[in-house]
Amino acid sequence: MAKIIVVTSGKGGVGKTTSAAAIATGLALRGNKTIVIDFDVGLRNLDLIMGCERRVVYDLVNVIQGEATLNQAMIRDKRTENLFILPASQTRDKDALTPEGVEQVLNNLKDEFDYIICDSPAGIERGAQLAMYYADEAIVVTNPEVSSVRDSDRILGLLGSKTRLAEQGKEQVKEHLLITRYNPHRVDHGDMLNLNDITEILSIKLLGLIPESEAVLRASNQGVPVTHDDDSDAGQAYADTVSRLLGEDVPLRFHEAQKKSFLSRMFGGRR
Amino acid sequence: MKLLDFLKRERKKSASVAKERLQIIVAHQRGHRGQPDYMPMLEQELLEVIRRYVSVDQDAVNITLDSEDDCSILELNVTLPNSKDDT
Fold first, then answer.
1. Is A202 close to B26, i.e. CB distance below 8 A?
2. ipTM score
């Protein structure tokens, strides 16, 4: 039975799709059969980040409306074994998703996969609520910035009330915090919220910390999830995040400012 | 003198300002968590009705909804201004 994990945030542009792609890739690289589903109907982008935009024929809405089968719509990742992508529709609007349709799709995937990663759209409207409704766990992506933290708290409120688990009243969706675009230098200068402040305010457990990194833009430019760039700080930070998601105890990295050496100052050492 | 003050004053780090502001707003948001969707409207309309008779501030009305085993209790606290000032 697959574990359903929603990647959500409330605020847009904080790195949901980047994180969903990187984490799904990491899970697959560790041997888990994984599918990542784009719930952002009308504004799909996961296909671009995963580098499969030219292979999209059918999408989630086609499947829900019975115009295509799941097997026709699922795209097998070219780089990673065990990894599949289910893109969102570019032309329909958000009302094309129905709770029954989403449930049907997830039920059909549950037996075949180990992990189903739901990439939520921004906002707290229908699309975001459907992406989180059937989740067992949630990864809340937050930037060290006031509006992002506030929106994350709103999303935590919804996870605690507007999900199937919450409505059944038996257990809660397991909530994880993922801090992205963290800049330890600015934190040291007192110009950026530090990770303890954020975890204290939101009072959920930290799953991972992704430093602000040139590797992320490089990865999206190329359509290769940043997890594959295992020399980069962001790639390693996502690999750590995946390990923790799998229950391993991995120490935190990249949260302290590194002093640049004289040589790398002179020659502009990257990453 | 002013210049000296300016130099002596330690600038408050923006991150700690952000933290304080967030703690307040998040505490406020959580106070509203789990309450029915109609509560903000109910609060507003009750305030309007009260204002027809007494002039009270927005802050003077405090509404909470507590759930017990099989019923919910709507508690309404209104701080009225001193009646002497009223007339």
1. yes
2. 0.82
